[in-house]
Amino acid sequence: MSTETRFEFKAEARQILDLMIHSVYSHREIFLRELISNASDALDKLRFEALTNDALRPLTEDLHIRITADPKERTLSVSDNGIGMNRDEILQYIGTIAKSGTRDFAKALKEAKDKTSAPEFIGQFGVGFYSSFMVADKVTLVSRRAGDTKAWKWESDGTGTFTLEESARDSHGTTVMLHLKPIDKDDDDAEDYTQEWVIRDIVRKYSDFVAYPIRMKVERQKWPKDADGKTPPDAKPETVIEDETLNSMKAIWMRPEKEVSEEEYKEFYKHISHDWNDPLRRIVFKLEGTTSEFRALLFLPSKPTPEMFLQPKERGIHLYIKRVFIMNDCKELIPEYLRFVRGVVDSEDLSLNISREILQHNKQIQIIKKSVTRKVLDTFKAMRNEDRKKFLEFWKDFGATIKEGLFKAEEDRDKLFEVCLFPSTAAGDDLCTLEEYVERMKPGQDAIYYVTGETRTTMENSPLLEAFRDKGYEVLLLSDPVDEVWVQFVREYKGKRLVSAAKGDVKLGTEEEKKKAEEAVKQKSETYKDLLEFLKTRLSDHLKDVRLSSRLTSSPACLVGDLGDMSPHMETLLKASGKELPKVKRILELNPDHPLVEKMQALFAKNKEDPVLLDTAEILYNQALIAEGGKPENPAAFSKKVADLLLKAL
Ligand code: ADP
Asked: Is the dihedral of CA 458, 464, 465, 466 positive or negative?
């Protein structure tokens, strides 16, 4: 047998453990919920692996969780005969806190003023096991991976190091033994977790629905009975030890909604989601069709959990078939853009030995996915209609993820547009749906206009919108990175084109107004033709064209792109993600009615080699960059040019 090896906890893990050890959190009992949850997950995993691994199948015959308490020794153990962990897995999952979300957690923890509420978000970061240190001064974990012969023992007092050594265990699975802290007499919340009734209460409260029996040996006083089933008058009770199952194991989604308490739903949500916050909303429904029959119990979280960002490929829906757990995070059941939805789907028609491969093409699964998606999107709509303010809060956290559906799930696009909210020049803090936008469209307006950019303020004040403002046209102000993507895919909404205000040539107003404007630009283009040609040649390093604008009313110049060009915001986003990009040259549009542009024309007619001409053009170009929230290409040279010009003007 190999000897014990000592490891140091990573700094972040130490911080969390330190918090646990000194926790004054009043619901310390939840440590048991966390351990039972982990055990239940481990049983799920074994059952799932056994579906495709015959050697493991005999191990799934009596899956259960056992709680053992020893009041004299002050120990409490939770053991399971689930998947277990090998040495590497223990090191990876228990030894260090490897998840990157933990770093954010540690940071949040440092910043949190009220340390007592900190455990509320511990669960979100997947450090549930560590909550044992709220009640224990030493924790011993012994585990044997199903299929392995070796077992491993992990032990720590939570203060800086842990040990790992080879050990023995009769069968596969994991036992977590807590060496409980002495009971603090001055602490009102202190409880003796070795007492049968305390354990029974906690299990009922938090883990009643766990699908595996949670067993415990209990002492019973038994009165002897005679052949007639009567207790003889002189009999004395004898103490017997019996195995009792503490939980009802009732599938919560099979029970009528009005018979399940809010508390039970909340605890179930926490059990399946590993989120310590209460859910925002629950969605209970069933489909009883001829082609498919299933029940679903779904939850919307109140805040995004780190998994949403760390493992966006995983989805939080568990699949059951006729009450039997099949797998968690079944990505075939829900589209990726709804990956934050948690819950359970229980099908009546699928075959129990279904595999991941079959799932992808299974017709029943596709029906379930479609109906789950529709139900969730309908719920969003209902939420918005019930309480727009509250829905906006939700939208702030999840809207960007939901909008991914606009291009990842074309079949849901129409329904998604009924839900999606966008900021716009006319919508205020309430944001608007496309339907609301269309209702506000002006006579003669035949398209839905949008701009993309980094912030709402820069977009709102951009010279690009001058003509729109002038005409009273509303413009969508899209600042989420995902907006850059979906606008590439969506060409129209209910017959109205979706048009970028920053690309191509925009002409606004009625047919007549458009014609007039075109005429005017044509005429002026004659006058300005040579100047435009000259500037285009001289500024060709930065620009692909210089032309007159019909979208400016008060500014002298702005920058636009061709229809297929990447927007500057998209360029910034891609560069920030480390992509090498060729320079995207833009188009400089000049306002022919602006005195500055008129003066430039006069100067050009007099002496086109006057350096002031080119300097002015360069300043206009850089100003246009600044106006859209960008930076001058060469800030120092730009400042110098401005200063020189100012000096001349004084
Ligand atoms: P979470 O359960 O939120 O992932 P924990 O810190 O409680 O976070 O557990 C970390 C990981 O350790 C689990 O994801 C699981 O892989 C492993 N683990 C914990 N308990 C057990 C157990 N009883 N059996 C097998 N693996 C376990």
From this structure: positive
Per-residue pLDDT at 98: 45
Residue among 315, 323, 208, 201 at smallest CA distance from 268: 208
Nearest to 3 by CA among 143, 163, 175, 174: 163
Q: Three-state secondary structure along 357-385? A: HHHHHCHHHHHHHHHHHHHHHHHHHHHHH
Q: Rounded to the nearest 5°, which phi and psi values hold at 362?
A: -75, 130
User: Tokens at residue 25, please?
Assistant: 């959190």
Number of helices (H) and strands (E), helices first, in the chain? 22, 21
Among candidates 312, 276, 299, which has minimal Cα distance to 125? Answer: 276
For residue 176 the two structure tokens come to 């977590």
- Phi, psi angle pair for 589, to nearest 5°: -105, 130
Global pTM value: 0.77
The CA-based angle 555-429-121, given to 5 degrees, is: 125
Lowest mean pLDDT among 66-75, 105-114, 295-304, 350-359: 105-114
- Give the residue ranges of the annotated binding site for ATP: 34, 38, 80, 85, 99-101, 124-129, 174, 356
pLDDT band, very low/low/confident/very high, at 396 (cuts 50, 70, 90): very high
Going by C-alpha positions, the residue among 403, 407, 396 that lies closest to residue 419 is: 403
pLDDT at res. 576: 81
**Ligand 1 center to 128 CA (angstroms):** 8
Residue 288: beta bridge partners? 293
Look at the block and give the residue holding tokens 């320079």: 583
Closest atom of ligand 1 to 34 CA is 7
> What's the rounded Cα separation, in Å, for the pair 287 and 299?
17
Domains and CATH numbers, the chain: 5-245 (3.30.565.10), 252-383 (3.30.230.80), 385-500 (3.40.50.11260), 516-649 (1.20.120.790)
Ligand 1 neighbour 80 (Cβ under 6 A) = yes
Cβ atoms of 296 and 320 within 8 Å: the answer is no
- Cβ-count burial 617-641 (b if 16+ within 10 Å, e if not): bbbbbbbbbebbbbebeeeeebeeb
Is residue 181 within 8 A of residue 136, CB to CB? The reply is yes
Region for residue 494 given its phi and psi (left: phi exceeds 0; alpha: psi -120 to 50; beta: otherwise) = left
**Through-space distance between the first and last CA atoms of the chain, rounded to whole angstroms:** 89
Task: Please write the tens of the pLDDT for every residue from 319-356.
Answer: 988 887 778 888 899 999 999 999 999 998 887 667 66
Most informative mutation of 31, 41, 210, 274 for ligand 1 (most atoms within 8 A of CB): 41
